[in-house]
């Protein structure tokens, strides 16, 4: 079987989430001239007021170097008040924007925040830009701190959370990254929306790459529940198969689910399904897998493997199918449910879902079989025959723990999407 790879899971680009260029920050305007008082909201000493007024005059004249020197002159004055710290840095911010000096901008933004006077409506803008600026020079720790503050300011905004998840991952903190992406998903639900598919896929990719066993299947199930397309189903079930160490029976049941959700893709998948069914003594199901693979262009009748397997299973089908009524009668008389279970499996392969359901129920009533296997397959045939409530009850009866419990949960997800 082809080994699963996370190459298909694209990293969420931080550059797409953050405004790392064209920084625009709203701040209160400083005094316009030396003989005009500062805005009433801010109380400035005469030396500070005069230096800032001169700074603005120089800036308006295009002398930004001189303007910065005057702002620094004000900053060097002793015993500055919070009002003065804020206004000095407001002037510096405007100079930094005019000169496209990101180093100065970052210093000024932090300086303004240190005053405690940045209005609440502007703090998010400040921290977003600070995070972007820190990212420009790969200062992940500082960017993380800024985006954590940004996220705290507006808990309903998922963009800072997405950025944080990537920052945690870049700093080799996959547990925190996965948890944060889970928070993105939960927050989106609380907002009445669905997080982007990339968030679900990224969460699964990080969990898989970091071997976070407890997080992999929840992330995979969440992905197919939110975005149940064939690609996501295939990725989720491939990951499940790779990590579950399945026996032949559970492997067959997984392939059956993949066939049902349209997740089989390529020659290898259909060949494996057909061969697994054949090895389990199910020629009808093996032939169905071969025929479907050929019909979808995944298998070629000219390939030796297809010719050989078709030559093995096709001659068996007529007698096998004709034997089912007699096997059903024998199963009713048997001391345990083993024959009923195997007969139900054969009926499944021929699409005789109602008859198969009766056999699985008989097997459960007689006992002597693995109840989880019987309930899982009972749910499968009831789902395929349209008995949604019955299928749901059967799947929920799979007690687990183990692969069959996980498969039942996947089937329940698929069932929930059916009309």
UniProtKB/TrEMBL annotation:
- Enumerate the TPR repeat regions by residue range: 124-157
Q: What InterPro entries would the database entry show? A: TPR-like_helical_dom_sf, TPR_rpt
PROSITE patterns cross-referenced by the UniProt entry: TPR
Q: Where is the signal peptide?
A: 1-33
Q: Which UniProt keywords apply?
A: Signal, TPR repeat
For this entry, the protein name equals Tetratricopeptide repeat protein
Q: Which Gene3D superfamilies does this chain map to?
A: Tetratricopeptide repeat domain (1.25.40.10)
**Which domain of life does the protein's organism represent?**
Bacteria
Query: Which Pfam family is one of those matched by this entry?
Result: TPR_19
């Amino acid at each position: 079987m082809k080994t699963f790879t996370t190459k298909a899971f694209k990293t969420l680009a931080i550059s797409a989430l953050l405004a790392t260029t064209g920084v625009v920050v709203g701040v209160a305007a400083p005094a316009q001239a030396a003989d005009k008082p500062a805005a009433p909201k801010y109380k400035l000493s005469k030396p500070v007021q005069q230096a800032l007024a001169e700074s603005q005059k120089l800036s308006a004249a295009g002398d930004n170097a001189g303007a910065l020197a005057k702002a620094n002159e004000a900053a060097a004055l002793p015993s500055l008040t919070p009002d003065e710290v804020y206004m000095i840095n407001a002037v510096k911010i405007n100079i930094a924007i005019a000169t496209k000096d990101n180093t100065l901008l970052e210093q000024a933004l932090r300086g303004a925040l240190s005053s405690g006077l940045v209005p609440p409506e502007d703090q998010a803008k400040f921290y977003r830009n600070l995070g972007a600026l820190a990212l420009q020079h790969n200062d992940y720790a500082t960017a993380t701190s800024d985006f954590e503050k940004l996220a705290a300011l507006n808990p309903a905004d998922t963009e800072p959370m997405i950025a944080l998840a990537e920052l945690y991952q870049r700093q080799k903190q996959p547990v925190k990254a996965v948890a944060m992406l889970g928070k993105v998903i939960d927050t989106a639900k609380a907002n009445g929306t669905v997080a982007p598919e990339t968030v679900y896929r990224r969460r699964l990719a990080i969990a898989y790459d970091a071997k976070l066993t407890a997080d992999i299947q929840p992330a995979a199930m969440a992905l197919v529940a939110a975005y149940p397309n064939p690609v996501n189903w295939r990725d989720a079930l491939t990951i499940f198969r790779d990590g579950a160490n399945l026996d032949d029976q559970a492997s067959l049941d997984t392939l059956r689910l993949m066939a049902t959700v349209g997740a089989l893709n390529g020659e290898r998948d259909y060949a494996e399904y057909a061969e697994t069914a054949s090895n389990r003594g199910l020629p009808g199901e093996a032939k169905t897998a071969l025929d479907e693979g050929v019909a979808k262009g995944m298998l070629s009748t000219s390939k030796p493997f297809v010719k050989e397997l078709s030559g093995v299973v096709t001659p068996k089908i007529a007698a096998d199918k004709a034997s089912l009524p007699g096997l059903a009668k024998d199963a009713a008389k048997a001391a345990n449910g083993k024959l009923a279970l195997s007969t139900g499996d054969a009926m499944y392969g021929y699409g005789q879902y109602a008859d198969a359901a009766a056999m699985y129920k008989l097997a459960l009533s007689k006992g002597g079989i693995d109840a989880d296997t019987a309930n899982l397959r009972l749910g499968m045939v009831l789902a395929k025959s349209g008995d949604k409530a019955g299928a749901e009850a059967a799947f929920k009866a799979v007690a687990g723990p183990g692969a069959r419990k996980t498969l039942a949960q996947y089937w329940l997800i698929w069932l929930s999407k059916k009309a």
